[in-house]
Amino acid sequence: MLSEKEENLHEFTIQTFSGSALFKRTFDEGMSLVEETARYLDGPGREEQRHLPRKIALLYAGESMRVTTRLMQAASWLLVQRAVHEGEMKAEDAANERYRLGSKEICYAQSGDGIDLLPTTLQVLLTRSDNLYRRIARLDDVLFGDVAVSAGAREQQALLAQAFGSE
Questions:
Q1: Quick check: 110 and 136 in contact, CB under 8 A?
Q2: For a Cys staple, 70 with which of 79, 118, 129, 138, CB 3.0–4.6 Å?
Q3: What is the chain's alpha carbon radius of gyration, rounded to the nearest angstrom?
């Protein structure tokens, strides 16, 4: 259980972060990548998959599901943070496990053999979605880690508050 002071710092940090330039850039990047990926998978990607050998087409299907999972998790997390900033959701609710970044076992898993045989656009989307997901995972850990247990986490939150408070 957080003390009142720790809870205020925690809420301040989440509120401050979700109003920061870093959050806005990450939000815009994430939503843009979701749209770009959807356009690709529903258009050119679908056509490219039809021309792949069966084994590579199966790999394509699995990797396109992985990129979609990463991006849906990232978009969901970003939308929750925006809701906190806009006052539509309490910071303490956003810290609930159900609103945290999920599907880590799928999103962090190594791609299968033959990834280099997939269309270049899908390979690029896989890399970009992985980078975005990992950045958001680090932010999620810093913002919503167990602050009651660790003095180090409180220090990290204080540094976040200081860094984002000036933006």
A1: no
A2: 129
A3: 18
Residue with tokens 């076992």: 105
The CB-side HSE value for 103 (13 A sphere, CA atoms) comes to 18
Long-range contacts formed by 67-71: CB under 8 A, 24+ apart: 67/37, 67/41, 67/122, 67/125, 67/126, 67/129, 68/37, 68/41, 69/103, 69/106, 69/107, 70/103, 70/107, 70/129, 70/130, 70/132, 70/133, 71/30, 71/33, 71/34, 71/37, 71/129, 71/132, 71/133
Show the 3-state SS of 86-127.
CCCCCHHHHCCHHHCCCCHHHHCCCCCCCHHHCCHHHHHHHH
How many Å apart are CA 17 and CA 91, to the nearest integer? 11
pTM, rounded to two decimals: 0.79
pLDDT of residue 111: 83
Q: What is the mean pLDDT of residues 157-162?
A: 62
On the CB side of 19, CA atoms within 13 Å amount to 16
Please give the distance of CA 76 from its chain centroid, rounded to a whole number: 8
User: Tokens 């003095």 — which residue?
Assistant: 151
Distance CA(45)–CA(104), nearest Å, equals 25
pLDDT in tens, 52-66: 999 999 999 999 999
